[in-house]
Specification:
The chain is α/β, with parallel strands linked by helices. It has helices at residues 13-24, 36-49, 64-78, 101-129, 150-169, 202-215, 224-234, 239-242, and strands at residues 4-8, 28-33, 53-58, 83-86, 132-137, 175-182, 219-222. The chain has one domain: NAD(P)-binding Rossmann-like Domain (Rossmann fold, 3-Layer(aba) Sandwich), CATH 3.40.50.720. Helix 4 links the parallel strand 4 (83-86) and strand 5 (132-137). Helix 3 packs parallel to helix 4 and helix 4 runs parallel beside helix 5 (150-169). The chain starts with a strand and ends in a 7-residue tail after the last helix.
């Protein structure tokens, strides 16, 4: 029986790239996202790429109970879930205290609470079947609070801490916990950014992510170089070096 993978936020960006890579590897792939037309189109590509089976699922991870239903449907369809990837996320430029609270809330609900809910609902299923792998997509932006990215940094930093606790709690169980923290990978989410240092193509990023997931790594930056060096240093920078210029009156 082919191995299976369940991916949230699979209609574009990193989720789509991961799905394509695992289809090429012959996995059964469940792709979950809000945009039905996008995942149905992607499903056709995945079948052509060699996926053992493809299951497109409409899912908004801020509708928390629906996550469990989607996981259950995939588990029935494939027989088991070997890998569950909590990837769904949004990213906005959000200066603090400027009337953007609804977008702040959406960021936290999707990137943090939605990811945690995905893991909370997935873990009992993995335990019941005798093991599996949880994958959380965080970010180098979770290393510290970045200007204009406060909610995003908070969500990814919070998810990082949750995954650390998860790894400690399941240490003696047959559960692999993988955290992947991308830097700039060329996606729609960051294409409008003024600066994207060390950006890499999406296809390259997807290939790196897939390799690391299959290897069952614990925590890695993506790509490893230069972020393994730079991400820890970012935490040490004085605020004046990362602060934006004063707003014009």
């Amino acid at each position: 029986m082919a191995k299976s993978i369940f991916i949230t936020g699979a209609s574009s960006g990193l989720g789509e790239a991961i799905a394509v890579e695992f289809a090429r590897r012959g996995y059964a792939v469940a792709i979950a996202a809000r945009r039905l037309e996008r995942i149905e189109s992607l499903a056709a590509r995945l079948r052509e790429s060699g996926a053992a089976a493809v299951l497109p699922l409409t899912l908004d991870v801020t509708d928390f109970p629906s996550i469990d239903a989607a996981l259950g449907r995939a588990a029935v369809e494939f027989g088991r879930l070997d890998i569950v990837v909590a990837n769904a996320g949004v990213g906005y430029t959000l200066p603090v205290g400027r009337g953007k609270f609804e977008q702040v809330k959406q960021t936290i609900d999707t990137d943090l609470t939605g990811a945690i809910a995905t893991i909370e609902f997935a873990l009992p299923r993995l335990r019941a079947q005798g093991g599996g792998q949880i994958v959380a997509i965080t970010s180098v932006a979770g290393s510290r609070g970045m200007p204009l990215m406060g909610a995003y940094s908070a969500a990814k930093g919070g998810l990082h801490r949750y995954v650390q606790a998860l790894r400690a709690e399941v240490r003696h169980e047959p559960i692999v916990v993988t955290e992947l923290a991308p830097g700039y990978i060329d996606t729609d989410m960051n294409r409008g950014a003024k600066s994207r240092p060390f950006v890499i193509p999406l296809q390259q990023g997807g290939a790196i992510l897939a390799r690391m997931i299959e290897r069952g790594v614990g925590h890695r930056y993506v790509p490893v170089w230069p972020w393994a060096l730079l991400a820890p240093l970012v935490k040490l920078l004085p605020t004046r070096l990362i602060a934006p210029p004063p707003r014009k009156k």
